[in-house]
Amino acid sequence: MQFDIGIWIGALLTLGIISFLYKDNIIYKISEAIFVGVSAGFWFIALFWDNLYRVFWIGVFPAANTNAKPQYILFGGVILGMLMLSRLLGNKVGWISRWPLAFIVGATAGLKLITYLASNALSQINATVGNFVGAVNQPTFAGLVAASTIAIGTFCGLVYFFFSKEHRGWFGGLATIGTWFLMVTFGASFGYTVMSRMSLLLGRIDFLLSDWLHLIK
Amino acid sequence: MKKIIPIIVLLILFVIALFNKSQLEMSAGVSILVTILLGIAMIVVLILTISGRSIERRIVFLFIGVSLILPFFMNFTLPLQVSPEVRTLYDALAKLPKGSKVLASYDYDPPSAPELQPMGDAFMKWAFRHDIKVIIIGLWPQGPLQANLSVNAALADPEIAKHPPKYGVDYVNLGYQSGNEFVIQGMGTSIRSKFPSDLYNTPYDSIPLLRGVENFSNIDFVFNLSAGYPGTVEWVQIAVDRFGVPVGAGNTAVQAPQVYPYVESGQLTGLLGGMSGGAEFEKITKEPGQANTFLLSQSFAHVVVIGFILIGNVALFMGKTKRRPPIG
Amino acid sequence: MRREIPLIITFIAGLVFVVQYFIPHPPFDAFEQVFTNWFAIVQAFAIWLGALSLMKFSMLKIRRKQKDWFMSVIIIVGFVVMVAYGAYDGFAGMHASPTYSFRDAGTHFDWLYQNIYTPLTSTMFALLAFFVASASYRAFRARNLQATLLLIAGILVMIGRVPIGDWLTSFMPAHYQASNLATWIMNFPNAAGQRAIMIGIALGTVSTSLRIILGIERSHLEG
């Protein structure tokens, strides 16, 4: 008889979640509740050790055998963090949680402003126009078709997203072409999403068939 | 009766789990027969749908389950084409001279492992075989532990085991660091500042492989496996566009379509998309693994999903979607 | 001052990260390093806020004996067990010789992670495969040109990305076989559409980020 308690628990929880496909039932609800509690606990303790201990505690109290100096400025982060928890105390005190929130939002906005502009806007426009001009200067049929497809698709897609002008006449025509390209994009994304979800399910089936039931290697 | 069936099925599974020691495999004849039966079942669904009786969703679930499970017991493979974006990544790796330093960023957790682990395993085996030095990091907490699974898979290879790579000299695992894209940004200036020690608390300066590795200018290539945020997008935005280090990536199939613009613009040096990308990478690196094994099940499932889409549309065009009670 | 101080904090934090992108030298690199560490610390507290809110909500549900209150008991037990073992393994690992991490193989936390958290998370995501198939059968109809384009692209990509696609289209010239069609769709029309979406989102992000840093956009400070 082969019995590994860990694998059995994993298998039973997997079957518990899958039972939802038949209908909602108490076994599924219990498995879901375990999932919620364990997930919250995982992130709670993982961030304690990875962020609070490794960044704050080691930073303020570095190990004796290293040359690092204590960084007392990290207390600023802890103060902001404690202000975040004031939300739990209700609206009278909770307003102060806006300060750490303002810090997070401001820092993220500052970083995203430049990186998105550089990588997602300018580089992409550069590639679209650059490849098209390159194909025109050194024309091969395949290269020209490829570069034109990208250039027209990108331009018409952007026209579609411009809602400050009514989509009528020639402008509407360009927007319609943009819609066609976007539909192909969404179809491709759908196809890949199906592939991804099937892959995840294959992982679970492999676990059940090989690790639990020993029916395959 | 309806309540007893699931209990009986469970009991059968429990008995198999407790006592079964032999593997199941279908012969070629049985595999073909099973495939034909599945096809016949789809035709029955088509006829029922055209006649106005749509199939209940639990029957659809059953088809998906059967189409995914049965190929596990079949024993044939179909030839696979390698797509250009996979070839681009492989060519970039193949051009690296022996002794080059590749930063492998494992940015995923176990739920995404079916898609990304085969890519990581193939890469690690290939790197060890071709004397490429690997510096492992993770922007997701479990990433470095998934990387260790890749290392173990590589070390289990008999040819690699004859001349095993040495930890600290040929590869090192620097572990996880919180901070998302800020970690990548910090590494552009100083990798040591973000990873002062490795996964086993050995100080950065004590590790032979890391001598002279200050920042991205000392890294020859970044191989990123990504399941979301932080991941490939952040590596391109910061490591490629700001610091100029070439990055190749493996993504889950959900994320892959969104990074094709980076491939087209040259910001990303190659892309492995989903399980099929992993299988293609296994083929081109000649490191057979799990992705190729799963691809048959993936094929069957895709054909079944396409079948259901076509059945629904055939019924629409034949105009016979009357409201009658569903089957099942 | 309740409004002004958060706006000043937003402005300073945003400005530091914008400036250090162009001037990664002292003192801006020091600012960036400090703010990055603060970000990691505050991130931990933000997740703690979510987890503790969940516990508060669950305890209220138990106290008031609302519907399915027993599930809240399970949620709290799951949370406490995970945190307790994670804390125990972390502290034990710190004082062991050699030291080990709370998530190393062989710890109680790792056992809980491999045998409870991973199967549950993976299966929750895997369930979507069934619902995608069911939704495709019921709702995916080629009622107009746009829907037909979506459908054709989806089918070609699905069949082209698995080896059975080339086997089914092996009678066609190489360029028109399923895998090459799928590759063409991904690298050209898909790339074009994704690029249009990417540029649109980038421009929106830039304008929203500027508005946030300059204090014009204040919705993140409501509530």
Summary tags:
heterotrimer; B: about 325 residues; alpha/beta; Rossmann fold; 2 domains; 6-stranded parallel sheet; 13 helices; 6 strands; about 10% strand; elongated; C: about 220 residues; mainly alpha; about 75% helix
> How would you describe the oligomerization state of the chains in this entry?
heterotrimer
Cα-based radius of gyration of chain C, to the nearest Å: 26 Å
The rounded Rg of chain A comes to 27 Å
Number of strands of chain C: 0
The greatest inter-chain interface is formed by: A-C, 117 and 123 residues
- Cα(first) to Cα(last) distance of chain A is 18 Å
How much β-strand is present in the residues of chain C? under 5%
Class computed from helices, strands and strand pairing of chain C: mainly alpha
Number of helices of chain A: 7
Alpha carbon gap, first and last residue of chain C:
16 Å
**For the residues shown, what is the average pLDDT of chain C?**
91
Main β-sheet description of chain C: none
Order of helices and strands of chain A: HHHHHHH
Can you tell me about this structure?
The complex is a heterotrimer of chains A (217), B (328) and C (223). With 217 residues, chain A is an all-alpha fold. Chain A has a domain of 79 residues. Chain A contains seven helices and no strands. Chain B folds into two domains: 81 residues, no CATH class; 205 residues, Rossmann fold, CATH 3.40.50. Chain C has a domain of 75 residues. Chain C is 77% helix and 0% strand. The interface between A and C is large, with 117 and 123 residues.
Topology readout:
The complex is a heterotrimer of chains A (217), B (328) and C (223).
Chain A: H1 5-18, H2 26-60, H3 75-85, H4 91-94, H5 98-137, H6 141-160, H7 169-212
Helix pairs in contact in A: 1-2, 1-7, 3-5, 5-6, 6-7
Chain B: H1 4-19, H2 28-50, H3 57-69, H4 84-94, E1 101-107, H5 113-129, E2 133-138, H6 143-155, H7 158-162, E3 171-176, H8 181-189, H9 191-194, E4 221-226, H10 232-240, E5 247-251, H11 260-265, E6 271-273, H12 274-284, H13 290-318
Parallel strand pairs in B: 1-2, 1-4, 2-3, 4-5, 5-6
Chain C: H1 4-22, H2 28-63, H3 69-95, H4 108-139, H5 145-160, H6 163-168, H7 178-213
